[in-house]
Amino acid sequence: MPRSASWHTPLCLAPPALRPWLTERGSLTARLVAHYPAFSVRVCAQGPAVPHDDEVRAIALARSSQHVETREVLLMSNDTPLVFAHSVLQHRALRSGFRPIGRLGNASLGSFLFATPTIRRSPLAWRRIDARHPLWRKAAQHVAALPARLWARRSLFFAGHDRLLVTEVFLPPFFAAAPAADAAP
Fold first, then answer.
1. pLDDT digit string (tens) for 34-80?
2. Which of 74, 110, 113, 136 shows a CA-CA span of 20 to 30 A to 104?
3. Does residue 63 have a known ligand-binding role?
4. Is residue 185 in some structural domain?
5. 168 known ligand binder
6. Are 69 and 101 in contact (CB under 8 A)?
């Protein structure tokens, strides 16, 4: 995945407790389950949508007006949202390499991605987002009283020629009470 300047904020600017979570190469879901036993997934939206401007090139769309399949979920601990996750892929990918995504329901996307050995992942990219970014605004629809800036990370997953872009926005209850980095699995 190309690392545009907008998705390459220096990691040293992130809160120290959040840095290990932003750079975690393994399954974020598995790590959350290890630290938050009351973990669950709440689906906020799933279906066709117009991609955000910074997603078009990442998933190799021919034009920005082309619709994509999206999935938006909250990763929760009890009733506390920890992460707002937003995934996009071309519709054709639901008929091939990413077919199971259409049937996940309240299961985590990570449970599929990290259990499928043929799926490859790009390097992670991260940035701070604010109310000007569509994902901050989407997170604000589900979580009250967000701070002015949030941290997000994203990466591409490849299944053959198909691409899935996953962006995870870390919510304030999460990084305010993030488990210590040395307790990470």
1. 999 899 999 999 999 999 988 988 888 877 668 899 999 999 999 99
2. 136
3. no
4. no
5. yes
6. yes
What are the pLDDT digits (tens) for 126-179? 999 999 999 999 999 999 889 999 999 999 999 999 999 999 999 986 655 445
Task: Give the domain range for residue 32.
Answer: 5-176
User: Is residue 53 a part of any domain in this protein?
Assistant: yes
The pair of structure tokens assigned to 12 is: 């040293």
Query: How many domains does the chain fold into?
Result: 1
